[in-house]
Amino acid sequence: MSTDEKTTPETTAPQAATSQATAPRPPARGHWTAMERLEELGLIKEEVRKGPDPLATERQHAKGKLTARERIDLLLDEGTFNEVEPLRRHRATGFGLEDKRPYTDGVITGWGTVHGRTVFLYAHDFRIFGGALGEAHAAKIHKIMDMALAAGAPLVSLNDGAGARIQEGVSALAGYGGIFLRNTKASGVIPQISVMLGPCAGGAAYSPALTDFVFMVRGISQMFITGPDVVRSVTGEEITQNGLGGADVHASASGVAHFAYDDVRACMEDVRHLLSLLPANNRDLPPAGPTTDPADRLTDRLLELVPDDPQRVYDIRTVIEELVDDGDYFEVHPAWATNIVCALSRMGGEVVGIVANQPISSAGVLDINASEKAARFVQFCDAFNIPLVTLVDVPGFLPGVDQEHNGIIRRGAKLLYAYCNATVPRISLVLRKAYGGAYIVMDSRSIGTDLALAWPSNEIAVMGAEGAANVIFRREINAADDPEAVRQQKIKEYQVELMHPYYAAERGLVDDVIDPRQTRRIIIRSLAMLRHKHADLPSRKHGNPPQ
């Protein structure tokens, strides 16, 4: 069945194929022995494990989807899953619900380990009521979220649900409210990861949006507030479910999804990898990892990778590969706002967050999407004690009517606010150009970076020499017999006076101008020095960041 088709009747609550264990009748003598009770428990647990009738599992597989338990097996270390409330059943009546009371109520909750570290999870079981959320279903999710927060361990949701269970009315809606409340309370306290493995429509989509990272799988994952039918009836637009809210749409256009994959197994492997880079909670440091990459390794290739000419482009990801341990990094939002790169990696075995302008995409300018992408990443790293390394090569903010009318001022201020508010170790490095307000925003010394470094090729200025000369010497150029000759002369004059690589260092705005070949060694040593940094923010309930 195409994933663009509407949900079939088999996935709606009244008609969903479900089953429940039938307890054995009491023996004639009127009581049970311990072994008989154990046998009964075994039958019920086996029924829970199998789920509804085999046809429901076949239908799930026919759509290219795994069952909830198969997904859990992919996520967790083998044999470590501990289920919570497997025997929970709803108590709702009406619309035939009293005759359909399957165990689990369509959601599997519990905990296990990923790379030996505790992780809590819940997984919708689409085979039962289409994964729709009812009162008991929601109560199970609330409980496991509370347990994750109390234990100080990450929470992963495996989402595959048809929304609120309509037959339970407002009770189902209130269940979503409880999830949203807990998502918000857990924000910045424990890592929260949403893995979209089926439909997620209406208000249900707000829970993933409140979490730290959203993973989607092409062909089976969709997220939208109003579906294609509503869009068609209101606007007349014809669009499929994937065209409206599929994985690629949210990974590249809306920015709702951080990652998109072709298959579930690759997706789960990256969820596991991401968890290996994150602390369990905001009181822990990120887990260190072994590396054979020498901390004092020279980075000679950087002299070739970054052109001296500021007008020539290059891929900043090659620079990141040269700097980090073994060239390995995990890029966040790789398909959205590609003019800035955000990535998690390790340097000297310690986890770092990297923010870098990307010259091969729109010359690396900052715009609305890039500012929001980087701001959220900076906030996440700060919340979970991940040091920040910022690689700067930025010509400024993107000019244009659309940018101004759509709020580049307040959107750009989000990145400024995030850096200014961050208390983790922060190191910035200017590779080439750093012009105007974008230089300030990219974690400059003036907004609190701990160490501001620059290469000898740096150009830190209010604007490029050509633009500056046109503004400062406009009258002189226009009045000259040979305006172009005078303009070129003034450009060189501005470059010599204000754009030489040591101008900022002479004024204490850059701590040091370094040899590019020493970059990895210097950053790792600097991060080691800053590891126990302590910074206090003013006493306040919370700030009021720009929206």
Automatic annotation (TrEMBL):
Its EC number is 6.-.-.-. Residues 294-529 form the CoA carboxyltransferase C-terminal domain. It is an enzyme of class 6 (ligase). GO terms for molecular function: propionyl-CoA carboxylase activity. InterPro entries: AccD/PCCB (IPR051047), AcCoA_carboxyl_beta (IPR034733), ClpP/crotonase-like_dom_sf (IPR029045), COA_CT_C (IPR011763), COA_CT_N (IPR011762). The keyword Transferase does not apply. Residues 9-23 have a biased composition (Low complexity). Residues 1-31 are annotated as: Disordered. PROSITE patterns: COA_CT_CTER, COA_CT_NTER. Keywords: Ligase. One of its GO terms (cellular component) is acetyl-CoA carboxylase complex. This is Acyl-CoA carboxylase subunit beta. It comes from Streptomyces microflavus (Streptomyces lipmanii). The lineage of its organism: Bacteria, Bacillati, Actinomycetota, Actinomycetes, Kitasatosporales.
